[in-house]
Amino acid sequence: MTFNILISDPLSEExxxxxxxAEGMNIVIDTNSTPEELAMKxxxxxxxxxxxxxxxxxxxxEKGTNLKIIGRAGVGVDNIDLDAATERGIIVVNAPxxxxxxxxxxxxxxxxxxxxxxxxxxxxxxxxxWDRKAFIGVELKNKxxxxxxxxxxxxxxxxxxxxxxxxxxxxDPFLTEEKARKLGxxxxxxxxxxKAADFITVHTPLLKETRHLINxxxxxxxxxxxxxxxxxxxxxxxxxxxxxxxxxxxVAGAALDVFEQEPFLDHKLLTLPEVIATPHLGASTxxxxxxxxxxxxxxxxxxxxxxxxxxxxxxxxxxxxxMLKIAPFFDLSExxxxxxxxxxxxxxxxxNIFYSGEVATNDVRPLTRNTLKGLLKRxxxxxxxxxxxxxxxxxIGIKVVENKSSTTKGxxxxxTVEVKTTNGVRRVAGTLLNGMxxxxxxxxxxxxxxxxxxxxxxxxxxDQPGAIGRVGTLLAKENINIAAMQVGRTIIGGxxxxxxxxxxxxxxxxxxxxxxxxxxxxxxxIDL
Length: 528
Ligand SMILES: NC(=O)C1=CN([C@@H]2O[C@H](COP(=O)(O)OP(=O)(O)OC[C@H]3O[C@@H](n4cnc5c(N)ncnc54)[C@H](O)[C@@H]3O)[C@@H](O)[C@H]2O)C=CC1
Ligand SMILES: O=C(O)C(=O)COP(=O)(O)O
Description:
It is built from 17 helices and 22 strands. By secondary structure, it is of the alpha/beta class.
């Protein structure tokens, strides 16, 4: 059997050795096609291998009628429409470890070049200027580096910065005090990091939550003269806000490897002398390119030959028998996890999943993985799936416990998920109603009956006349329309909760005025 493989971004020739060596692989390297040309020819291929430049859009995926696997020789999969791939049953694999070191080294190179104005000085010298006054830099020693996103690359950067005798403070939703202590760094909220740092470097994926994480408001709370690095993804920093912050002298320097729109030839940030930049070179070393290409090539060969893959991004792997019995619970389990990821705050330490009733007689591990996927997706993005969710939870240090029982408290089946964080315990329970789909039936100790979909608002309030009216009035002022509402309480006149389904996406900031009301204790936006 012969498989047609298309490589549409430049990959290391040494790295694709596993593909070249495997039998039956017809490899075509074509790195010059326009998106239209790619869409025309993709139907001929079984596998597509890319880096960050090829935009693997829904259109391309839908035209890939023979496509079985997409290999991303690198980390970020934001150039691949994962939903479209999953819908078409196309597995996406990436190479998450191969370029960590290179990206961390590039970040340090950018940090040092920026601090000592090396690119600017070099340019001046090339223009036949011997100018020693214009390029006075700052030392790194004893300065504070703020790291936003302490995953693989962020952690490597933190370790290197300590080698430069810098103090490091980091924020990551999965960073605990204990972990920070072990790494010899400080930890705090995003605000703490932004306020304390002389240099700030971001290392998160580009997600809904991280888009413009560094915006006008963020710049305002930073130290005067702060310097910024982005070697992660364009879009994490709001480029217009960065431009204004540099012009106003709030920000003294910026080192950028990635941009909101790539590639480009002209960029207004590059007109500022404080900005140094590289054209997305973080992973561009011989070592990293060989390593990531080897990793995806091995996965592509293995997958096309019916084997397992090491780095699946969207694979749903359950046996047929298990699938038949538990498949109806997949969506509910993911939504319970997603619900709790919004409801709970603090660092997640433990997840307890209680399976009751008939569902508990099955192997429920795929449901557990799906719950974890829902729970972790908010911070880790779309590369979390039911295959890698447990692995990621383990890696982060989250204890996961499955409990089974026959007691269902009146329901045929009941799934209860409980999350312990550094700030307390939160719980949500759901069931499948015969012929009526999924329902959330309990939030913490409060009974409710809520369809787990769309835009929800959880509000905890004092059970007294007028509370509901005040919430309605305030939401109306914000032009937020209520589509459905549920109230739950355990005792009359005590604490109670409202679960609202609303017509548009809001975040916690949009509903912050609710908690200013005397009888409202919590207001949390939940998007399912
Ligand atoms: N410039 C380049 O050529 C390269 C860029 N990258 C990019 O670097 C970034 C980091 O990559 P890795 O470290 O491998 O990923 P990773 O998945 O190991 O780490 C990302 C970390 O960001 C954290 N995070 C998520 N949301 C957050 C938030 N709102 N605030 C703070 N932290 C948050 C996650 O908890 C996770 O620990 C990615 O965007 C990746 O695409 C990676 C390699 C090369
Ligand atoms: O791995 C990543 O996320 C990167 O950004 C590297 O991108 P590249 O493969 O060099 O186009």
